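Dear colleague,

As promised, here are the two records you asked about, laid out in our usual form so they can be pasted straight into your sheet.

NAME FIELD: protein one
SEQUENCE, THEN STRUCTURE:
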Amino acid sequence: MTAANPFYTAVEIAKQAKAANAKLIVTMACFYDRVKDLAENGVKIVCVDFAVEGCLHFSVLSGADESLAPVVDFSSDDVVALPYSSGTTGLPKGVMLTHKGLITSVAQQMDGENPNLYYHADDVILSVLPNLTLFRSYN
């Protein structure tokens, strides 16, 4: 999973999508023009707000039969997310985050006394990506 900056141009998004080997892009209708050419290369485009010609609507995903989803084997060392750096020393670069790395980061936050965190062992924490600034705290 990777998140693209909404200020990126179509060329910048295409470069990132190619580097990430994107199969699916979830976007808003107002950004569809920036990603529509990727559909010619087999990338599925899903709009979350309005139905746009040539784009699937989010309701297609939300109505899918979960039992048809394949079981995927993965290693803790597999890349789970590919956020892009800000590119302060050049063009933005993908930062490979593994399952183990993200779990370790959460475990470090949970372990010990931190008066700013009010998590408990039984809490379930939902992270809705992309969040370009918060998610980068894991880099």
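NAME FIELD: protein two
SEQUENCE, THEN STRUCTURE:
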Amino acid sequence: MTTARDTVYPLAFPKGTKFLCELCQKPATKICERCRVTYYCDNEHQHTDWFGIHEKICQSLVPLRISLPFLPSEEERRKRNDDLRNKKLQLIEYTRSIAQRYLFEGDYQRAIPGAMTSLKFVIELFGIKSVDLVPSYLILGEASQGLGNLSQAQEYLSQAEWTVTKSPDCPLPILSKLYRNIAMLQISKGDFDQALRNLANDIYYASEEFGTESFQVSGGYFLIANIFFKQGKMDVADSLYRQVVNMWHSHLEQVVGKKTEISELDTILGKKDDDEKDSESLDTERSNELASEAEAKKVLYSIYEIRRNETSQDIAELTKIEHCLCMVHFLSKEYDKVRNYSDLLESKSDLDEIIKANLTLIENDKDYISNTLDLLNEIEYESSMNLMDKCKYYGYVTELEFETSNLTGR
């Protein structure tokens, strides 16, 4: 609903002043009521930007877009400029990771605002010819492809290619991602032979940067496997799918192992649960983790469906994929799904001992709720309501669980 506070009138702007839409760069007629520094051409673009990225960074944009007072000291000015630069760099990485996560989840429309925001800040910091523009171009290209706009996707990829050709020292991860995105567009057009060549380049550059067994190389193998699967070359596809699962399995085991090493008391009294942080805390590390988890789910569920529909099922391979899904849902704090896959795995008589040990770690980490309640009961609180709020805040108990526990404040 349009209000007087969120409406702007271009004719009322000072001469030479233009405010443009955050998404399409058309003359703005609306302004964000919260930050008062972000403009839109209509309600639709404001809604798209809000749910895509702006909700998470609204107040973070204020110090970057308002007119700042003059500082007499050169040292103060330098310090402030460095601080603003660091904030922009953080926003670039954060908004990209959010957009990348939406891509893996298949929510292409929501991926666009984050990529556009990162693109603007890169241009502000490094200029229009910087190779740092390429990741944002690639996200926009993939989002356009997902929305069925192949011509727009081709345009973004062409911009990315041109930028890379002008940057002889282009980082290997960017080269890898560029070739992968080009291949994805070629796959959508049915040009499998050329796509395979580009995916070979993707794997080469990713392996150079991360190592041949890294999960960050697996995306190229997964796309190659999909091509061979479509061509009916099942032996080759089967081998590549196994390799992808092995890469993710190894990575997820390491991540889960590190997570379960965190002590219960440190978790209670230390940092706030990731899901309960301020929506504008700009936790880039966690944002990158969420993007990685979204990628794992996309890849593993695709392979899982293929394996389940095989006439002659490979039980060992299915078990490994189910273990991967159990771990990734654990990392995403989707404990209902963890329980489903955990029960499924534990029902198998020939379960590998390593997988059994890993499941025990996961269950122990999840089951520390009861111990957590005992520890919290020893801490002084003014009332039982405060204690319940504390438990709910950290995600350890629901209100129903609290009421049925021994923590009554007596």
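A couple of things worth noting about protein two: Residues 1-69 form one domain. Strands lie at 30-31, 39-40.

Best,
R.
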